[in-house]
Amino acid sequence: MMLAQARALSTAAMLLMSATVAMAQPLCEPITRHIDRTAAGDVVSPLFLPSYERGEGETALPPPIARSAFSYDNALAIVALVSCGEFGAAQRIGDAFLSAMTSDRTFKDGRIRNAYRAGIVKSGPQLLPGWWDDHQLIWAEDAYQDGSQTGNVAWVGLSLLALAEATGEQRYRDAAQRLSSWIADNAVDRHEANGVTGGLAGFDAAQTPIPWKSTEHNVDAFALGSWIARDSAEPAARKLVKVTRPFLDAMFDPASGSFRMGTLPDGRLQPTHVYALDALIWPLLAVADPPADWRRSLALAETHLAVAGGYDFNGDQDGLWTEGTAQAALVERRAGNRPEADRLLAVIERFRAPSGLLYATDRARISTGLAIGDTSKEADFFYFHRPHLGATAWAILARTGLNPFTGKKVD
Question: What is the residue extent of each domain of the chain?
Fold first, then answer.
């Protein structure tokens, strides 16, 4: 009798999974087609996917991003493909990350760069993005893309854990553990046992530690450590949990109901009236049982970041951020508000490019209030109306209900 019940439950679960994947298929297929275009006939080799496609009216992408496969976007693509049941496709990107960790052109510590060159990954040192500068007559690279920010390293670790659970292959988990060790060695604040710093910035010969701490990065590192620590006593993972959880508590401001974005380079706290959507809502996904008071941060986002049926990146409300609106949909789904999650997804799924990928924004450009890298002197980080891998991946996760911070369904 018990065996028959187990079989019935298994069949029901499989049917539910099939129905969920079917609902996400209009978003899953554009990513698999993105792989086909990037691979150009190669159906087996590891590869990195371009983060962006040309926007409406563009004949070419700007040189600094034309060949860029941002690690964060590719990590998201892995988790999204796992949720779509496309394990083989996810492994191709995962194997590209494994190759990058063991064949960096300069460093031998297993780090992940912020970006790699899109395309098939070949043997030897992995290529970084770059472009020929006709004005200076040099091969140019971007200092941010060459660096290793803590959040991006953690996201790759999370994606490899998802891949390990989907395939049962230990090599992905081993790589994720190595990335947790890299963060523990390079980003844990040595002056105060509270939080992780931003990682390393700059070109290979002159990389420097990033002194500021980001709430978003600490969420990422906490999630990576927590996932590994679920069934392992791995010291680095436990260290990450130990230092990041108090930081998240400290970043929540009870008076305003807001999560601060983090700290400034000199250690001072970011003000409570400067908002970033991911800092406000990611703690509600990453922490298994968040304090009830933290849920006020979603209400604050609804008040200060809501725009055009969705959410902006920050509080200037200058346009809809597709990726963040999908994140909010997943948070709403976890909170049990499925109608609102479906409404948000219906809004962003209208912003579909001819390729099927979702546009990053609903208009030509929106601001973030942030600088692209640590050498920038102004808020020059913008999102543009271009088809975006990361936005599409987040929409898939919201549609399938898979929490990328835990590898578990939210409902």
Answer: 16-409
* Cα–Cα distance list, 157 to 90, 292, 354, 401 (Å): 14, 28, 32, 20
**Cα-to-chain-centroid distance, residue 246:** 22
Q: What is the mean pLDDT of the chain?
A: 93
Give me the CATH topology for the region 16-409.
Answer: Glycosyltransferase (1.50.10)
DSSP 263: B
pLDDT digits (tens, 9 = 90+) for 345-396: 999 999 999 999 999 999 999 999 998 766 666 778 999 999 999 999 999 9
Q: From residue 190, how far is each of 62, 248, 270 by CA, in Å?
A: 39, 18, 20
Half-sphere exposure of 99 (CA within 13 A, CB side): 19
Mean pLDDT confidence for 92-113: 97
Rounded mean pLDDT, 93-102: 98
Structure-token pair, residue 190: 């040595």
Element spanning 358, H or E: strand 358-359
Predicted confidence (pLDDT) per residue in 146-173, tens digit:
999 999 999 999 999 999 999 999 999 9
21 has pLDDT over 90: no
CA–CA separation, 409 and 156 (whole Å) = 19
Which tokens go with 12? 């029901």
Scored b (16 or more CB within 10 A) or e, 269-280 reads ebebeebbbbbb
Cα 232 from chain centroid (whole Å): 24
Q: Is the dihedral of CA 264, 270, 274, 279 positive or negative?
A: positive
Cα four-point dihedral sign 227, 233, 279, 186: negative
Q: DSSP states of 49-71 as a string? A: --SB---TT-SS--HHHHTEEEH
Q: Measured between alpha carbons, how far is 52 from 255 in angstroms, rounded to an integer?
A: 39
Contact criterion met (CB below 8 Å) for 396 and 24: yes
- Whole-model pTM? 0.94
Q: How far apart are CA 334 and CA 336, in angstroms?
A: 5
Which distant-in-sequence residues (6+ apart) come within 8 Å of 121 by Cβ? 45, 46, 47, 48, 95, 96, 99, 100
Q: Provide CB contacts within 8 A for 138, sequence distance 6+.
A: 132
| Over residues 45-67, mean pLDDT | 96
